[in-house]
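$ ./design --mode recover --in tokens.txt
reading tokens...
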């Protein structure tokens, strides 16, 4: 039956969405009763509206309903957030060795040196006394001595052959072991990945690792239960895939499609999938599950009609709808029941329920109801890119009325072409949203999707899933996946395969999204063209640059490591490239490359101060992005050139030694190297002693970038009378006690000292004695663990900007 929402429906749904979004903009979480008062006020307003709805004008009643629903959603979401934070890890327990008992709650994820997994805490003790811990934590168990770097906290202990191995860890096992925990604390950078929000939404309130050192109690497996049976089956299937398929890259792709193990796909393959615009097909995303549901509905409906008895018992459309939703839910559960999958299944259940009840609402009402239901279940979804990608795509499908067309066609061929048309509409509508959220769009995506959509959905995925029942199907799936990967790799090598544009402001991005939706809707061609003026500003946006004669620094939050972006009116320099986190990840690929692309920055020079891995670990990723960049370094030029991934293609970077006395000028800004001396090459062996030291200065202000020089080099610079005076000093050696001598500080006379260090790093940077020296001179010390990315501009030399202060959020960890 055709119907519309009740009189209170539209305003209520709009108010819920607005109230949820408003709550996410808070900088500080208030007390429980603060939010409860808003909820109580909302109920009162609803009661008054219900009593006097006839006497109130329609527009006034709708406005009151929107406000009431907004207050209710704001209050309820705030109360939920407050209750959740009460289970957070107490600051006094961070870094302490505690004995914890509980269950492995997720399929362990292998990584270099060990595994990572979710753990449900039953009980814990500290020094023999019971302690309260968060219910869900994320642990790592290292199988060997592994240098994790300061971003992960304390050093791992050397593995002992007498302790159990993490290789046999399984979901449902109950363990007792010693762990060391900390509050989730991620890097905060402009346009960077919000690790703390991701852990908040996952319900993880502490991270840490299992202690297996010689002085720690041996981990004890207490029992193997059948808790978390789905996770256990997923692990068994993943292991079977890995054992069956000898090629790791193909095995990782099949595992991602079957059990949702996206970490099994190698980073190089992800780069290819993103460049060709098919990444949504290679992971269990919302669109993937929706497409699976539609295919399941079509198949079940087709088979159901062959039996008259079944059709009499239950109409084929109803059976198809129920079967599609149930199978998609089972697929989402088997693939890990991730947050995007949960949102999608909830949306499908909402739409399916309306159809089963025979309610035929206009598509905007159905779309808004599904959106509201998801936000009620998961309010923090509004901050996730996947939420907007999914719902814009679904809204476009509803608006284009393509489903109605596909239902008119009884033939599989008609359904196939309808499905292809839906994908084209989604691609067209999501292009501006992708530009706003990610700053990129694949120009070969239409071609790649035309090949990959039917290949993955009709061949690779069915074969991969059937392999769960009979393993030889995995061989066929691997062959099909290998063919597709080869074609995609070829497409990714095309010139201009990917269009990268600077990330525009939100308001400009919203206009672009509206333009994309207008282009995708079923409208007359003349009206569709009106979307172009809204879309074009998004394509040609340019990030603001410093004025001529001025410069700015951005000390990027890369954990325990160094990376400073220096920009002038027309040039850019990166001083150091951050650390390598593990074999699969480094600061260049994870932080610096996305930042440079988001700002539309092309590097003119890369300075690698010395050979320590926390300074050059991301260098290869930067050189892969811009192979023609000039490199100045104290590292052996042959080693830098050899590490560049572009050498194989014949494009090698220009690598020159940095040395005192070299200087140049960009846009009225002077750059001068003060250390090391040319005579130091070949004679000085210590890495830190060879750190490049760069001074950047305008007519009135200067900054000093120091690398890891220590007190001996500081004394030498002071003795030689080097021009050290600067407003901003990058703390030598991350604030180590071996640097920042009194004489050096007095020579520099900084107003600000910037410290790049990891949260709770194992080196204790910055040292307390060093901080005392700076504080005694009235110097303000700004550190990345508390500040996030640090920004200083020479034309606003009296202040620094902290990314955590510019973009405060209730889920962000605030250091005491």
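writing sequence...
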């Amino acid at each position: 039956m055709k119907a519309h929402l009740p009189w209170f429906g539209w305003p209520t749904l709009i108010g819920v969405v607005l109230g949820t979004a408003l709550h996410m903009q808070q900088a500080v979480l208030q007390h429980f009763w603060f939010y409860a008062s808003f909820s109580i006020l909302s109920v009162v307003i609803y009661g008054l509206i219900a009593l006097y709805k006839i006497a109130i004008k329609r527009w006034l009643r709708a406005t009151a309903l929107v406000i009431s629903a907004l207050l209710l959603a704001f209050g309820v979401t705030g109360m939920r957030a407050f209750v959740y934070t009460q289970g957070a890890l107490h600051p006094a327990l961070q870094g302490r060795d505690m004995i914890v008992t509980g269950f492995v709650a997720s399929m362990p994820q292998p990584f270099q040196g060990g595994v990572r997994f979710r753990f449900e805490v039953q009980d814990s003790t500290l020094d023999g006394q019971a302690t309260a811990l968060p219910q869900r934590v994320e642990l790592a168990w290292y199988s060997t001595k592994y240098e994790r770097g300061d971003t992960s906290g304390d050093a791992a202990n050397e593995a002992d052959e007498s302790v159990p191995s993490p290789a046999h860890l399984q979901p449902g096992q109950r363990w007792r072991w010693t762990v060391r925990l900390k509050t989730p604390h991620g890097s905060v950078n402009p346009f960077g990945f919000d690790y703390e929000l991701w852990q908040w939404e996952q319900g993880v309130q502490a991270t840490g690792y299992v202690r297996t050192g010689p002085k720690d109690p041996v981990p004890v497996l207490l029992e193997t239960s059948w808790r978390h049976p789905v996770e256990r089956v997923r692990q068994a299937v993943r292991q079977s895939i890995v054992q069956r398929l000898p090629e790791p890259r193909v095995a990782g792709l099949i595992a991602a499609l079957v059990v949702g193990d996206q970490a099994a796909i190698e980073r190089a393959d992800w780069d290819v999938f993103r460049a060709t615009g098919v990444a949504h097909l290679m992971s269990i995303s919302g669109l993937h599950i929706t497409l699976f549901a539609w295919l399941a509905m079509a198949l079940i409906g087709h088979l159901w009609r062959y039996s008259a008895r079944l059709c009499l018992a239950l109409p084929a459309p109803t059976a198809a709808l129920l079967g599609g939703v149930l199978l998609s839910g089972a697929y989402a559960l088997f693939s890990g029941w991730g947050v995007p999958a949960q949102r999608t299944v909830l949306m499908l259940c909402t739409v399916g329920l309306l159809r089963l009840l025979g309610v035929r609402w206009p598509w905007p009402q159905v779309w808004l109801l599904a959106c509201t239901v998801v936000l009620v279940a998961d309010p923090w979804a509004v901050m996730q890119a996947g939420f907007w990608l999914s719902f814009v795509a679904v809204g476009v499908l509803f608006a284009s009325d393509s489903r109605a067309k596909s239902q008119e066609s009884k033939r599989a061929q008609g359904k196939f072409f309808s499905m292809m048309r839906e994908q084209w509409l989604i691609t067209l509508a999501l292009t501006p949203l992708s530009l706003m959220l990610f700053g990129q769009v694949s120009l070969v995506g239409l071609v790649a999707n035309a090949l990959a959509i039917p290949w993955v959905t009709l061949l690779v995925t069915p074969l991969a899933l059937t392999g769960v029942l009979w393993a030889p199907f995995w061989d066929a799936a691997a062959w099909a996946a290998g063919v597709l990967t080869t074609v995609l790799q070829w497409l990714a090598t095309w010139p201009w395969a990917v269009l990268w544009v600077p990330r525009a402001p939100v308001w400009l991005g919203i206009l672009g999204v509206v333009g994309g939706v207008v282009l995708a809707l079923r409208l007359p061609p003349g009206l569709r063209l009106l979307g172009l003026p809204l879309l074009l500003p998004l394509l040609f946006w340019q990030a603001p640059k410093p004025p001529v004669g001025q410069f700015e620094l951005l000390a990027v939050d890369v954990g325990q490591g160094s990376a400073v972006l220096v920009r002038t009116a027309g040039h850019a320099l990166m001083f150091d490239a951050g650390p390598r986190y593990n074999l699969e990840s480094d600061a260049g690929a994870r932080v610096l490359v996305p930042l440079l692309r988001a700002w539309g920055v092309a590097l003119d020079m890369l300075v690698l101060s010395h050979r320590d891995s926390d300074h050059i670990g991301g260098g290869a990723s930067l050189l892969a992005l811009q192979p023609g960049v000039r490199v100045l370094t104290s590292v052996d030029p042959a080693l830098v050139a050899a590490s560049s991934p572009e050498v194989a293609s014949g494009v090698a970077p220009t690598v020159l030694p940095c040395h005192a006395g070299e200087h140049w000028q960009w846009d009225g800004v002077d750059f001068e190297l003060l250390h090391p001396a040319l005579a130091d090459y070949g004679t000085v062996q210590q890495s830190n002693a060879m750190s490049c030291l760069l001074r950047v200065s305008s007519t009135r202000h200067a900054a000093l970038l120091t690398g890891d020089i220590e007190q001996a080099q500081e004394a030498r610079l002071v003795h030689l009378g080097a021009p050290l005076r600067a407003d901003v000093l990058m703390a030598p050696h991350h604030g180590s006690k071996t640097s920042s001598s009194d004489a050096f500080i007095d020579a520099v006379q900084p107003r600000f000292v910037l410290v790049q260090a990891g949260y709770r790093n194992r080196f204790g940077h910055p040292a307390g004695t060093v901080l005392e020296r700076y504080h005694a001179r009235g110097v303000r010390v700004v550190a990345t663990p508390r500040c996030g990315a640090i920004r200083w501009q020479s034309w606003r030399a009296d202040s620094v900007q902290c990314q955590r202060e510019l973009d405060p959020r209730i889920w962000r960890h605030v250091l005491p």
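exit 0
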